[in-house]
Write a structure and sequence with these properties.
The complex is a heterodimer of chains A (about 240) and B (about 70). Chain A contains eight helices and no strands. Chain A has about 240 residues and is mainly alpha-helical. Chain A has one domain. In chain A, helix 1 packs antiparallel against helix 7. Classes of the chains: A mainly alpha (about 240), B mainly alpha (about 70).
């Protein structure tokens, strides 16, 4: 596939999947964000950091409109970013992925990446709604989160490479090795330093919606990139022509 | 047989330049949505960008929803 076409289909599929992610979030995550920010406001009033007056609510409405308007836009930017990573990994691993066509292969890879660089890091450092995070610890939490994503992602890659060197009846040892490795990382990596002070039912429901939103992205990007690849790959075209 | 396999691999491979371009897009996009605290706009607006947090606020809801740490 030509480089420009490859970049184009990766970016378009990431943008579309990101728009789906943002739209899903807009529908199912926003109500929980509003609830959590409501608690945050009550805490500000109670502590005297803000006054419950018309000016506060005017400012609040203004920045909440800005924040909500960014849900789909940010979804598209994040979609392009994660879609680019997905496109790179797909291009490099396509010949090793199971499946008869690119949609199947891309969905399989999306599932693997969803588990390794999203779900497993999420289980260690789950998403939190506003009012939970402490501004003082945001850098530390970012470092921990990114580190765990890198540990899980590169760990999966390393054990996959290792399993390729094993005999076919022992390839499962790669998966076992990754499982042991990631359990060790779970134990060794520090906990999120922030105490969860919001009601746990709100936090848990928010987390579930968050998972559904991100899952919608990975399913979409797998299907869309797979469809584009099926359509535009030179190898497929020549196969269809013959 | 090996010739056929080689042909198949070369047809599905993509250039290193394309990989590099996408890697840059990945890093930049991830930073914008997940981690910017005024850094990008500070190039134009200086210290005020760290107060305004324009990109942070725009990406705020997605940042929480996608699992990124936020305050």
């Amino acid at each position: 596939m030509k480089s420009a076409l490859f970049i184009l289909i990766v970016i378009v599929s990431g943008t579309l999947a990101g728009a789906i992610h943002g739209t899903v979030n807009f529908a199912i995550v926003e109500p929980y964000l509003d609830q959590a920010i409501g608690i945050e406001n009550e805490n500000l009033f109670a502590s005297g950091e803000a006054d419950d007056n018309p000016q506060f609510w005017a400012d609040y409405e203004e920045y909440r409109v800005w924040q909500k308007s960014g849900q789909v836009i940010a979804g598209m930017i994040l979609g392009v970013a994660m879609g680019s990573l997905f496109g790179i990994v797909y291009a490099l691993s396509r010949n090793s992925l199971p499946g008869k066509n690119d949609v199947t292969k891309a969905v399989v890879l999306a599932g693997i990446m969803w588990i390794t660089i999203y779900l497993i890091p999420f289980l260690k450092y789950p998403a939190n709604p506003p009012t939970v995070g402490d501004a003082e610890t945001v850098v530390l939490r970012s470092i921990l989160y990114v580190s765990f994503i890198a540990i899980s992602g590169f760990g999966a890659l390393a054990f996959y490479k290792l399993s390729k060197k094993l005999q076919s009846d022992k390839k499962y040892l790669g998966l076992v090795g990754y499982a042991v490795f990631i359990i060790a990382a779970f134990i060794v990596m520090p906990e999120n330093p922030d105490e969860v002070t919001a009601p746990m039912n709100l936090v848990n429901e928010f987390r579930l919606m968050s998972v559904l939103g991100v899952t919608s992205f990975w399913i979409s990007v797998g299907i869309i990139l797979g469809l584009f690849w099926n359509k535009f790959d030179d190898a497929n075209s020549s196969k269809n022509d013959s | 047989m090996s010739k056929v396999q080689q042909l198949s691999v070369s047809k599905t491979s993509v250039s290193k330049v394309a990989i590099l371009v996408l890697a840059i897009v990945f890093a930049a996009g991830l930073f914008v949505v997940g981690f910017d605290q005024g850094h990008i706009f500070s190039v134009v607006y200086g210290e005020q960008a760290f107060v305004d947090l324009t990109i942070h606020e725009l990406t705020h809801d997605m940042r929480h929803a996608a699992g990124f740490p936020c305050h």
